[in-house]
Design a protein that fits this description.
single chain, alpha/beta, CNF1/YfiH-like putative cysteine hydrolases, 7-stranded mixed β-sheet, globular, disordered N terminus
Length: about 290
Amino acid sequence: MKDLDAIRTHQSRKGAPGDTRSTSAANAGLVAMEGRGLPLLQFPHLAGQHGLQHAITTREGGVSRPPAQSFNLARKSGDDPAAVDENRRRLARALAPGRLVFLRQVHGNTVLSLAEPPAGERSPVAGTGDAFITDQSGLLLTILVADCQAVLLFDPRQRVVANIHSGWRGSIANVIGATVAAMARDFGCRPDDLLAGVGPSLGPCCAEFINYRNEIPTAFWHRRVSAHHFDFWAISHDQLTAAGLAAGHIALSRICTRCQSQRFFSYRAGHKVGRFAAVIGMCEDGRRK
């Protein structure tokens, strides 16, 4: 597996969350792998977990045309539906066995707990919300993003996975804290057992909020790193540790999607873009892929 230090964003402004750099998970970053010819990324501390499947896609390996080239996975993006379906088939094949499951994401803090597979098509929508949790093998929980954070969670003791869509509105609503609480309530998870990975997303170098005084509550202003820039990576780390996760169990990819828009879809870099995916689930046969 090839290390991806070369594509990590450089921090041109102050504010990288220094309190997370000393942890083993945070230092691991992301590594590249291939799933049946499809370029994918993984967190090493999650890749080492028996029976767990997870991946983060890039823009590469698909059939979509500009501006969604080439591996767009979102249907409501102006892309050709046939191209999106083919891209989803390629992802499902790369992560087989398992079934991709999606959410109708709305930038809130609603969390869905899946006790059984949702009915419907090959890649069904489980419902409306911004996080979902399951203890069912064979369900590949899929979050679509283009600057927002996807936060992957795994409980190796209770064998429970979760996937979170956390944009800046979701961060303010603390969808991360709501998800950890739901894992404890619905599945008996202990927060200090959980492992977390925060995927490629808008970094402190590019998370500019000109109207932050009207948009972002003062409780988050200590994570302002310049006149109008915020470190939402650090905010997510804060929320994970506040929910009870050990700092050493949290990995931040530290890849800014706007800086790396040639590799990841970025809404800030160009509004008419596709979406890449973060996926997590447990293998039906109990073997890690």
